[in-house]
Amino acid sequence: MANLVNDLKNSPIKKHVVTSIEYDCKSEKDQEEIYSEVYSILENHLEEFAKITYELEGDNKVKVEVIE
Prior knowledge:
By secondary structure, the protein is an alpha+beta fold.
């Protein structure tokens, strides 16, 4: 699967790459850990992406989406 994604990313046509990760958090501590990671990315890698979102969803899920 990774090779397919790399092939698509290497296309010379203008594109936006979107990565979406959904975490199953068992506790608020898990949610805070993910939030801390997102915050760290914002502090240290701001120039590497166009947009990042952090969403708390139902059923103890956290969704993080990054657009390169």
